[in-house]
Structures are given as C-alpha cells and as structure tokens.
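User: Could you write out the 3D structure of this protein bound to 3,4-dihydroxybenzoic acid? I've included everything you need below.
Assistant: Certainly. Input first, then the structure.
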Amino acid sequence: MRMRILKAAASLALAAGLITPALAEEVVKIGLILPMTGPSASTGRQVSAGAKLYMAEHGDTVAGKKIELILKDDTGTADVTKRLAQELVVRDKVNVLAGFGLTPLALAAAPVATQAKVPEVVMAAATSIITEKSPFIVRSSFTLPQVTKGIAQWAGKNEIKRASTLVTDYGPGIDAEKTFVEVFGAGGGEVVSTARVPLQNPDFGPFLQKVKDEKPDAVFVFVPSGFGGVFMKQFRDRGLADAGVKLIVTGDVTDDDLLPAMGEAAVGVTSSHHYSAAHPSEANKAFVAAFEKANDGMRPNFMAVGGYDGMRLIYEALKKTDGDTNGVKLVDAMKGMSFESVRGPVTIDPETRDIVQNVYIRKVEAVDGKLYNVEFDVLEAVPDPVKAAAKKG
Ligand code: DHB
C-alpha cells in the first residue's frame, strides 16, 4: 500500500514537472561552430566531417550518455561565432563548445566559455595565444610557431641562405613570420624581406613580383587552409620557380584538400606540418580510406584530423569523469591526455592545454599519379615553442 502511494506521488510529481525524467539528463550536447559557408567553408567541411566520422566509428553513447552534436555555421564572422556560442550555452544548454575555424572566431568565443564554465575545444584555429584566452580552452589542432620551426631549420641546412617571407596578415600569419625570421636567422640565414597580404581577397601578385626582383634563394609562405590553390596559381603565373626562387611553406599551403588540383606547380615544394594524408601508419591508412568513403572521395586534410581528435578528447574526458559534464572536470580530464593519433603520438600539455605533437618535413610528390605531401624527416614531440620559451623564462 505504502509503495503504491509513493509510486503515485512520484508519477504526479513527474507529471507536474517537479522531477526531471532521467532521460533528459542523459544527453551530452556538443555545440560545433564552424564556417560552413564563406571563404573558409573548406575548413568547416573538413572539421565537421572529421568529427562525424569519429562518432560514426565510436558510437553516439559514452559513459551511458547519448552524444548530440549541434552544428552551427558562423560564416567565418567573429560576431556570429560569439552570438552562436551564447545561444548554444544559454538556450541549448550545451556541455561543450567545439570547432572554431579561424583565430578571430576562437577568440570571440573565449569569454563565453569562461563565463559559462564550458570547455572550448579548438579543432582548427592555430595562433599561439588562443589557449591563453580562457582556462576552458583545449586545442586539438596545432600552432603556427610549432609547425614553422621545422621548415625554418630545414631551410638553413639545405643551402638556402637568403629568404623572403609572405604571410596572411592576421594572428597565425604573424606567428609564422616571427618564428621563421627568428629560427632561420638563428641558423645564420638572411631574411631579405617580409610581406603580409590581407585575409580578405588576397592579391599575391605585387608581393610575388617584388620577391622575383629580390631573387632570394627561397620564399617562405603561410596562407590559411583553403587559400593555397589561389596562391600556387599566382606563384606559377609569375614565373618565380623559373627565376630560381624555391618555395617553402607550412602545410597549410600544400593543403591535402587542394593539393590534388594544384598540378605541376606544387611538385617539389617542401613544407613542415603535423599531418599528411600520406602519413604511412596503418591507423592513418584506415582513417583516410574511411573518410574518403564517407565523404564522396574527399581527401582528409589537417583540419579533418583536428575535428576527429577533438571528438576523441571529448569522448575520453567523459569516460574519465564517468559521464560528469562539469566543465572544470572535463578540462581537467583532458589535461595530460596522450594517444596515438592518425598524425602520430600526441599529448595535451597539462599546463598550457595545447597539443604536443610530431612535426614532419615533407615534399610534394606524385604517388600513384596523385600529389601528396610525402614525409621524409620528423621532429618529435614538439610543443608550442612560444609557450615553451615563456616557461623557461
Ligand atoms: C588558421 C586558419 C587556417 O585555415 C590555418 O590553416 C591555420 C590557422 C587560423 O585562423 O588560426
């Protein structure tokens, strides 16, 4: 009798909305904010496909909770990113914010993450400073200083004595330029000139003409993912290679998303980066095959891997907290996490919340008739050098 009364009381309370049904609590919501349209749409396409592939392979239930991915298009505009982050936190009550295709977009969401105490998993943007803007930011992508150091050292050791630089004029480009100038200079190289082009509608022509006249041994270039094709065409049309100027770049330029369409101009270009679709591990071969199969033959680039590994961080953190979605606990769980990624071994530095990873030196070559960044050397377990230097003092 007592049991029956208790049960009746419970169902009444439930009907009156006094008790939240257990089911409603068992969903973990991830707000994925990406540029799905606009000039950086390829980043959105790649990161979201990487995140979705991870879920397809690992299921949508973790630690007894259902994972719900809510994808929003910020069009690459920081105001929109910020508004979407606020809406996702306040209205949709997401437990994690993720994505962030460009530096200004990652920065715009940082105060929202801090205030809401919600983890912000940066899967794409790569300016060093980003992780310092909120204790809730964890990065699964890379930093420009981290990937630039390798090519700057390689240049100094490979008969490049005089070099010019050409970068996109915002956070990651300025990071790349600074690192190249410092590291190449420390190795005895001479920097002939530095140039910056706008992010919006870049015209590389005048800068390339100037470089051609200066005749350095090489020009070092950074442009963000999605812009490498336009750059490569102008580099070829201006005849820099014929004038004897070598092209050295970060892997953002010889982007796997665009490389198959770049043609002859890209062959022989040397770069350094943390991921190549041609990385020769079994895990990567399986990843590339599964990604291409799920996306109409689209080749994964480094952005796809940022999305894939970012989801892995979230899944593994939830396992560690046993499904607890408290933001501080989730970020703590991600700190120090190590695993074998399709790019090679990675660790989340527990102090900086930035990713420590291998950086490979690669050359564009045709493999079975298609262009790839073929790795031929590696710098192991590279931290973000800016933060490593600050730590040393
Ligand atoms: C950033 C964007 C890119 O597409 C890239 O390749 C590197 C950095 C950025 O905005 O941080």
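The mean pLDDT is 94.
User: Perfect, thank you.
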